Amino acid sequence: MKETSEHTQSYYAATVNQETDYPRLQGEQHCDVAVVGGGFTGVSAALRLAELGYDVVLLEACRIGWGASGRNGGQLIDGFVEIERIERRFGTDTVAIVRKMNVECSQIVVDNIQRYGIDCDLKLGYLDVGTKPRDLAYFQELIVARKAHNYPHEMEFVPQETLKNYIGSDRYIGGLINRGNGHLHPLNLCIGEARAAEGLGTRIFEQSPVVRIHHGERPRVETAGGVVHAKKVVLAGNAYLGKTEPKLAGTVIPAGSFMIATEPLSADLAHELLPEDMACCDQRIGLDYFRLSPDKRMLFGGLCNYSGKIPNDIAATLRPKMLRVFPQLESARIDFEWGGNIAISIYRIPQMGRIEGNTYYAHGYSGHGVAPTHMAGHVVADMIDGKSDRFEIFEQIKHLRLPGGKWFANPALALGMGYHRFKDLF
Ligand SMILES: Cc1cc2nc3c(=O)[nH]c(=O)nc-3n(C[C@H](O)[C@H](O)[C@H](O)COP(=O)(O)OP(=O)(O)OC[C@H]3O[C@@H](n4cnc5c(N)ncnc54)[C@H](O)[C@@H]3O)c2cc1C
User: Fold this and answer.
1) Where is 12: in which H helix or E strand?
2) What is the pLDDT of residue 410?
3) Domain boundary residue among 344, 374, 392?
4) Ligand 1 atom closest to Cα of 223?
5) What is the average per-residue pLDDT within 169-181?
6) CB 3.0–4.6 Å: which of 106, 227, 236, 366 could bond 371 by disulfide?
7) How far, in Å, is the centroid of ligand 1 from the Cα of 7?
8) Is 6 inside any structural domain?
């Protein structure tokens, strides 16, 4: 399967509310902030900046939501960074700030959907499922610890005896419901947020890959056909940034993650599989994640590779995984298969920093990104607006680099995929 600069052939691209067709950048533009990358990180930064009154130009190499943001599992899960990773480096004040961010990130998404009336099928309710006794112990610890820190969402432990009320699978021995997490159509969310930013004055250009950034007091951001003169720049290309900014080479490892979507299932079968229509995820390192779409397809994801290549037959690997969870889907046709790239940060802490004083970046969400990208977009925008406290926490963290930023063929890095395991007990 070869990538083009149009959307990949995903279920999301096939069901988008309204395709975008923003112009290519031609000639010169002037603005306060130039944002490079039209995924959740870039779009949420642009939207927040526009809300704060900044004049923004957003440059996307392909289409809004073309990258991971328009291709993901649509699982809205809170958490920005594992508290214990921060705790080792910083004191209790910082931990308190990060704990708040862990909850705030998904609230930003919910608020945007409500404020801007974005039609993206948001459905709250999430079921973590376990295959091992240690998973169940973890669920119970998590409930206690979150209660101790006034976690605002309802959480409920589900023993094996009642698990059938939530999932029609014999694969799991217990679960954890979180009513604050959920699922949504990520491409429609991303486009809806871009349109909201546009409504506040942001100028958006698609099919406009940035080829060079000239740093300095007044940075110049160049594409093949034009140049943007900005006071500040935000780099939000995540796993797709490539060589755009040589100073970021090797900071994250791109890895592929893949999904399939079945044909629409009968209402009875869909109800048997996921009676409460919750998004689900298991606790293994090579995790399975799945949910129903509004038209009752099973959207199932879980494969991960570090080769940088999209396998020719994604379904050949993912379908057997899906059937291990739901043998009832034996005769269900697979209508869509697709993949996208996530950016793994070796310490699994999202990376934020600045280059030459006025170019900011945020990336490396390590597989978990729908909610964290929104948090990062806000933190970078607030930094530009003079509120530096949260940005500076993350800017201080030194991240391990890999030479040249090449694709890395070490399966141990699958550890970075564990977005479900927010063992921080916040
Ligand atoms: C298959 C899959 C399933 C996933 N499932 C989930 C999930 O269920 N829940 C969850 O929380 N997370 C999930 N994730 C992770 C999540 O999607 C990502 O972490 C998140 O979308 C990253 O957003 P982003 O904006 O940083 O990057 P992206 O969405 O990848 O956007 C980067 C954009 O920058 C553009 N760009 C790059 N370089 C340039 C340049 N030089 N000039 C102009 N534009 C440029 C690209 O074209 C791209 O559109 C999944 C990811 C994948 C791939």
Assistant:
1) helix 11-14
2) 42
3) 344
4) 42
5) 98
6) 106
7) 12
8) no
Q: Say how many domains are in the chain.
A: 2
Residue 411 lies in a domain: no
pTM of structure = 0.95
Q: Is 209 in the pocket of ligand 1 (CB under 6 A)?
A: yes
416 lines ligand 1 (CB under 6 A): no
Q: Which residues, other chains included, contact 117 with Cβ-Cβ below 8 Å and sequence gap of 6+?
A: none
| DSSP run (H or E) holding 35 | strand 27-36
- Position of tokens 């869509």? 336
Average pLDDT along the chain:
92
Which of these, 119, 91, 403, lies nearest to 246 by C-alpha position?
Answer: 403
Q: What is the CATH number of the domain that holds 124?
A: 3.30.9.10
- Assess whether the C-beta atom of 136 lies below 6 angstroms from ligand 1: no
Tell me the pLDDT band of 407, cut-offs 50, 70 and 90.
very low
**pLDDT tens digits, 329-374:** 999 999 999 999 999 998 889 999 999 999 999 999 998 999 999 9
Q: What pLDDT shows up at residue 409?
A: 39
H-type alpha helices, 254-405: 267-273, 314-325, 370-384, 389-395
Q: Which two tokens stand for residue 424?
A: 């921080």
Report the CATH number that the domain containing residue 245 is assigned in CATH.
3.50.50.60
Contact 307, 362 (CB under 8 A): no
290 and 213 assigned to the same domain:
no
CB 364 within 8 A of CB 399: yes
- C-alpha gyration radius of the chain: 21
User: Which is more confident, 169 or 345?
Assistant: 169
Which residue CA neighbors atom 4 of ligand 1 most closely? 72
What mean pLDDT is predicted for residues 154-168?
A: 98
In a domain, 1, yes or no: no
Determine the average pLDDT of the residues in 399-406: 66
Q: Are residues 274 and 336 in the same domain?
A: yes
Residue 322 alpha carbon to ligand 1 centre in Å = 24
Our answer on whether the CB atom of 337 is closer than 6 Å to any ligand 1 atom is no
Question: Is the beta carbon of 40 within 6 A of some atom in ligand 1?
Answer: yes
8 A C-beta contact, residue 201 and residue 55:
yes
Please state the φ and ψ torsions of residue 172, each to the nearest 5 degrees. -115, 155
Parent domain of 145? 81-184+254-344
User: 38 in a domain, yes or no?
Assistant: yes
pLDDT higher than threshold 70 for residue 423: no
pLDDT at position 73 over 50 = yes
Asked whether 86 and 352 are in contact (CB, 8 A), the reply is no
